[in-house]
Specification:
Blueprint: E1 5-7, E2 10-12, E3 16-18, H1 27-36, E4 40-47, H2 48-66, H3 70-75, H4 78-82, H5 86-100, E5 105-111, H6 120-126, E6 131-136, H7 147-164, E7 169-173, H8 180-189, E8 194-197, E9 205-207, E10 212-214, H9 226-235, E11 243-247, H10 253-262, E12 266-269, H11 271-276, H12 280-295, H13 299-302, H14 314-333
Parallel strand pairs: 3-4, 3-12, 4-5, 5-6, 6-7, 7-8, 8-11, 11-12
Antiparallel strand pairs: 1-2, 9-10
Helix pairs in contact: 1-5, 9-10, 10-12
Bound molecules: flavin mononucleotide.
Flavin mononucleotide binds next to strand 4, strand 5 and helix 11.
């Protein structure tokens, strides 16, 4: 059965996409992922801070040549000027990876603030990126910004990137809004070709022995797929033709099937590949084919089959599921008190 999929207007051979992770940080990694069978590869993110650093370096370079800003050039410590140019490295990766594989290579741009850094998107597209995945990663902590202003900034960052490129732009966003659905709809209205749900906020933890805060990257669990699936099911029939990607907790063909049933165009995978190797893609594809054959339906029929139907109240649907879940918990564990 054909697994051909359309995502962000791109034609993919199947709906399994390698999500941004260290696996695609070099050309060999991208080739390995493509050979393993993924439909597209997302590169790890180019960070706003790296782009801004290059802007500073460029400015200093010009100033040095013009010999007009002597003081400015000595203001920054020398080692900073000698830092490896992360932007150049990233552009080389995009160029070489796009030339090396026959699946779309999607560049990822990660930032949180407004500014000229977003114009780098045009260079990513010129280097061969089939699309830009814009990861708007606003870390909680600024108590002076209202929810509305954070949401408006998301839309503005998208507009800046959208305005800089002709290739499709997807926004990878966090689920932590008072109404994630409205933010999603606003982003699509402002020109996002797709949404990637969701970003993982890598929460630091506290080590009680060393009494210190420890940042950490940890892998997902299959349960992590429930939240993105819930929102994808809600949004599928609310955002017109924009694409939806599910990311988080896809460890098996069953998880991919769940994402598709919720309404995802593609399901992205990172943790399972990091843990078990790229061979997992083949197993997922085989399992997906077997499942589809069992349903007797094509991909187009199963995709979104369990999405909230247009016009239905998503709130009522979710609320009904919540009430039902608590009722079955009561039956199993007895009265849940205040719940
Ligand atoms: C080690 C590691 C590095 C990651 N780096 C990036 C990144 O550079 N940009 C990004 O948007 N997401 C990044 N992610 C998030 C993944 O792309 C993915 O969205 C997330 O891990 C959820 O998918 P999973 O459950 O399949 O891991 C990273 C995840 C991991 C585990």
């Amino acid at each position: 059965m054909s697994l051909a999929t359309r995502y962000l207007g791109l034609e993919l051979r199947n709906p399994i996409v390698a999500s941004a992770s260290p696996l695609s940080q070099d050309v060999a990694g991208v080739v390995a992922l493509a050979s393993a069978g993924v439909g597209a590869v997302v590169l790890p993110s180019l960070m706003e801070e790296v782009v801004r650093q290059r802007e500073v370096d460029d400015f200093l370079e010009v100033a040095r040549h013009e010999d007009a800003f002597g003081e400015a050039t000595t203001y920054f410590p020398e080692p900073l000027l000698d830092e490896v140019d992360g932007v150049g490295q990233y552009l080389t990766l995009v160029r070489e990876a796009a030339a090396a594989v026959d699946v779309p290579v999607i560049a990822s741009l990660n930032g949180a603030s407004l500014g000229g850094w977003t114009s780098i998107a045009s260079q990513l597209a010129a280097a061969g990126a089939a699309a830009i995945e814009l990861n708007i990663y606003a870390v909680p902590g600024d108590l002076s910004m209202t929810g509305a202003s954070i949401e408006a900034r998301h839309v503005e960052i998208l507009r800046q990137v959208r305005g800089a490129v002709d290739v499709p732009v997807a926004v990878k966003l966090s689920p932590y809004f008072s109404n994630t659905g409205i933010v999603a709809r606003d982003l699509v209205a402002a020109g996002a070709d797709g949404l990637v749900l969701f970003n993982r906020f890598l929460q630091p933890d506290i080590n009680p022995v060393t009494m210190s805060v420890e940042p950490g990257v940890y892998l997902s669990r299959p349960e992590d797929g429930r939240l993105p699936r819930a929102w994808i099911a809600v949004l599928r029939n609310e955002i017109g033709g924009a694409s939806l990607a599910a990311t988080g907790g896809a460890w098996s063909a069953g998880d991919v099937a769940k994402g598709l049933l919720a309404g995802a165009d593609v399901v992205m995978v990172a943790s399972a590949l990091l843990e078990h190797g790229v061979g997992v893609v083949g197993e997922m594809l085989e399992g997906l084919q077997a499942w589809l054959a069992g349903t007797g339906l094509g991909l187009d029929r199963v995709r979104g089959a369990l999405a909230v139907p247009a016009g239905d109240s998503a709130e009522a649907t979710q609320r009904a599921g919540y009430v039902e879940a608590l009722a079955s918990a009561r039956a199993r564990w007895g009265d849940l008190g205040h719940l």
